[in-house]
Amino acid sequence: MENIGNNIQYQIYATMQNPDPDRFPVIHEEWENLARKKLQDGPFYYIAGGAGSEKTMRANLKALSKQEIIPRMLRNVDQRDLSVNLFGQKYPFPILQAPIGVQSIIHEEGDIGSAKASAEMGVPYIASSASSVPMEKIAEAMGDAPCWFQLYWSRDSEIVASFLSRAEKSGYSAIVVTLDTPMMAWREKDLKNVYLPFLAGEGVANYFTDPAFLTKLDKPPQEDPQAAIIHWTKIFGNTGLTWDDIDFLREHTKLPIILKGILHPEDAKLAVKKGVDGIIVSNHGGRQVDGAIGALDALPDVAAAVGDKATILMDSGIRRGSDILKAIALGAEAVLVGRPLMYGLAVAGQRGVKEVMQNILADLDITMGLAGQSSVSNLEASLLRKME
Ligand SMILES: Cc1cc2nc3c(=O)[nH]c(=O)nc-3n(C[C@H](O)[C@H](O)[C@H](O)COP(=O)(O)O)c2cc1C
Ligand SMILES: O=C(O)C(=O)c1ccccc1
Asked: Residues in domain FMN hydroxy acid dehydrogenase (predicted)?
């Protein structure tokens, strides 16, 4: 296999005599700046913002930058293997597209555009419960490419059961259950902008096409959208859940169950005790608890608590190849990428998402090689030193 890093790098430098003046950016911060120019305040800050003072968002970046790589030399890195095995399935790269709701506010191609970009790369796409088109449409657009479904656990358990059954029927191969968002956080920028996409009917497609949801309405959403949205606000989250409720999921799906939003090692132990298949160490990109631990800082203790009893994934703050290397060295099998791909979507739809994905993977490949590493499955914590 050709190494993706050298390929992409070569493709870029090959245009040296005649560079395209409209070419895409390479630098993460430039994608974000372009997205800022394209989007109104409301949508842009909905994506870019976090909870409260955004301390957690900064903690994510700080946790990553505190870890330093100590490269190894003379280890034959001609062939780099970036592939991973997750839940019995082999994937070419150690990244997944994080579940992101309301993508219609970002670009007209929305979820279908970003899903197809994932499909082109062989990167699993995690469709959000709050997608802008029904999950069946996303699965159809993905064809045979890998897709997982992210569940927001509704207060109405009939909707939960219905979502699980729809996901299974339409070909999703795993269920990601997000635990850190039983309600929307205190998000200062959204409150300042008075911007909440759902109230404008964005991100509710799965609900408005769900038989269990529709039976609770007096009139169909097309006839009385306002009433449907009000009902949605009542059933969306579930602050009453406890660990015992995990059994309900197991009874309603045969797919692997992955809990998203674990930070405390005691919760990781409870997850293992409940027999879940995987966990995602995540603080939701700093969008839920202000002043929470950086996700990478939470990873080593969670990994120690889980051992080999469940698959560990991680997200929150991944921007570049070296970030992925660090997360995997500290115990994750693979990482989810969120906002960088959404800035790609904002700027150029499907093509933008694919471009950002390719660049992050090229950077990872080259960083691996230069650090003396030829396989992501062999990355170890001894490759890192944590700054005081
Ligand atoms: C605009 C936006 C919408 C999101 N929607 C969801 C969602 O519907 N479900 C979910 O589990 N996580 C959601 N997340 C969180 C991401 O899945 C992921 O945890 C986070 O973006 C990772 O951090 P990063 O953006 O720093 O990569 C959302 C994040 C953003 C930025
Ligand atoms: O905005 C988010 O972070 C998020 O997780 C979400 C929650 C509900 C619907 C859409 C997105």
From this structure: 20-388
Distance 282 CA to ligand 1 centre (A): 10
286 lines ligand 2 (CB under 6 A): no
Helix 339-370 crosses helix 321-329 at what angle (to 10 degrees)? 70
**In sequence order, what are the residues at sequence separation of 6 or more whose Cβ sits closer than 8 angstroms to the Cβ of residue 183?**
237, 239
CA of 106 to the centre of ligand 2 (A): 13
**Domains in the chain, start-ordered, CATH in brackets?**
4-15+25-376 (3.20.20.70)
Q: How far is CA 322 from CA 65, 153, 227, 294, in A?
A: 10, 33, 47, 16
Name the residues annotated as catalytic. Answer: 284
- The per-residue pLDDT for range 219-255, each reduced to its tens digit, is 999 999 999 999 999 999 999 999 999 999 999 999 9
pLDDT in tens, 300-343: 999 999 999 999 999 999 999 999 999 999 999 999 999 999 99
Interface predicted TM-score of the whole assembly (ipTM), two decimals:
0.99
Nearest CA to ligand 1 atom 20: 285
**Tens digit of each residue's pLDDT (9 = 90 or more) over 353-382:** 999 999 999 999 999 999 999 999 999 999
| Ligand 2 atom index nearest CA of 198 | 9
Using an 8 Å Cβ cutoff, are 240 and 155 in contact?
yes
